[in-house]
Amino acid sequence: xxxxxxxxxxxxxxxxxxxxxxxxxxxxxxxxxxxxxxxxxxxxxxxxxxxxxxxxxxxxxxxxxxxxxxxxxxxxxxxxxxxxxxxxxxxxxxxxxxxxxxxxxxxxxxxxxxxxxxxxxxxxxxxxxxxxxxxxxxxxxxxxxxxxxxxxxxxxxxxxxxxxxxxxxxxxxxxxxxxxxxxxxxxxxxxxxxxxxxxxxxxxxxxxxxxxxxxxxxxxxxxxxxxxxxxxxxxxxxxxxxxxxxxxxxxxxxxxxxxxxxxxxxxxxxxxxxxxxxxxxxxxxxxxxxxxxxxxxxxxxxxxxxxxxxxxxxxxxxxxxxxxxxxxxxxxxxxxxxxxxxxxxxxxxxxxxxxxxxxxxxxxxxxxxxxxxxxxxxxxxxxxxxxxxxxxxxxxxxxxxxxxxxxxxxxxxxxxxxxxxxxxxxxxxxxxxxxxxxxxxxxxxxxxxxxxxxxxxxxxxxxxxxxxxxxxxxxxxxxxxxxxxxxxxxxxxxxxxxxxxxxxxxxxxxxxxxxxxxxxxxxxxxxxxxxxxxxxxxxxxxxxxxxxxxxxxxxxxxxxxxxxxxxxxxxxxxxxxxxxxxxxxxxxxxxxxxxxxxxxxxxxxxxxxxxxxxxxxxxxxxxxxxxxxxxxxxxxxxxxxxxxxxxxxxxxxxxxxxxxxxxxxxxxxxxxxxxxxxxxxxxxxxxxxxxxxxxxxxxxxxxxxxxxxxxxxxxxx
Length: 717
Hints:
With about 725 residues, this protein is mainly beta. Helices cover about 15% and strands about 35% of the residues. The chain has nine helices and 37 strands. Strand 6 and strand 7 form a beta hairpin. Helix 5 (about 415-430) runs antiparallel to helix 7.
């Protein structure tokens, strides 16, 4: 009974978490969802515990690259009178996240609108909408003059009498796809509900903006997916968190700088050591039991691009954020947040939101230890890992005053090909002394966070820690772009994708066609058409462990055709029967727009439904074949590929028939209704009760309008 009550309480706690509207930014290499409530809380999108890691996907082309576990946005003030309860508080704090969300009375959504420079294309495969952007890229308003490719405008009224306007920018420019710029404007409008039925004008003293970032890097190897990394890593138990640029007057050895010499104010996180990892050398998340590739080599973080000095001074305050103290992710302070609990609000405000800068970051304290065993010196515990916490303020806001804070959230790290190269070399201990160029930050990372051991671990970790430098470069790109935006300019735009991309399966070819309006874009130079065999995230490379080099993959698996302007149709006559094929089309320019060739994002046209060759129906029942026969598990990936490893094909069958599959003793295994008029039908070797078939002899019975046929096939597992 106690257990049932506990689960009910959890459900009620999170039930409001995912009732708010969300929008996705999903056109570049970084994908993330954004909540109408102003913050993306723990399991806040779906309400499913299996989505503990949900969002901040990088590199987004590949599945399960989520790095986000929870976020929090708290607004606080002191000496605050609340007209709703007719009470004065020493401190009043309102909350969105990291777990709590009250969209009725605390952080109240008013607007969540997606703007697009153009709408996402219509992508069809065999007449069906077939792109992830159908649900990830919901454009409400098209604005051809937009400075970014996508913009989310989010307005939230809070019960501290402050309206928040959040604007998020995303870009498809090839050099600016790894970050989202987030502009926050906080206005003291004195309203306490959506329609401002309760209004009370007062000066906000000590107004503080506080954000929490709970990162978990990365979902690929975690318990709900690859399951080769320790279970608690899925909620960020071993996440390492570091800070740069806290003290502009006295820079530390690991601080970084923009080209103009100004300091970068940022925080970043990575996958640290875990006491339960086996083997213990888990930096980068190598798949030791599999092919060795790195499944958690990402670095993610946030950089402050601008923070007002005050409501009457809109210049950037280089001493903001004023607080960069970390917080343990399952600290009681992070849950059960109640805006009318004065004692709890005072604790939140004084001990977390305005606490200043720690002498050492969480990462500096952990060093080469196990991050999951780190205990916060303030609480003596660490039940769920550690989150980044940053605070801006304190500000004094008169009625009508506002402040603006601009951040960029970013992700980077080793490329996918390098994740395979480095991880496989490390696992097989066949690497050379090939090491990356070092930098002051890279040296700092290796000196402080790498456990000295053998050369193999040194090789792997040297490459993993280049991710810190890569992330800093993304921070610099975000700053560069922000300066353009502030001056009323914008990045050069790649040619837009065609408004329609259509794929049609056929008997001896797959036909593709598209609209040509992209050709009117400045500097348009042509198209790149990609074909991916087996699955939509098929790699375009393979790693040759003997030669220690990354090579282009066999073009029968990943193929690209370069097409000239004026071509709007292509016939793929090299596809093979029984295999799944996915496509995307890029437009590109001649390099005159940005001194380098720009191409449209692959995500605009990437198909999520397979096209395939389907031959005309058989003319004679004697031609019916089952392939492969026998089916042998030892060669399953060589038959119809890794994405259809259990596939059997029924070939040369009539246009309409019912296929019944029986065991040798006559037990019915599955029924397949073949109705598409072709001569091909695929079966995934799964019974009607969702079980994989075992070894044995099976009988396929074909019931047709004008007769019946029987075929036997064997399965060896």
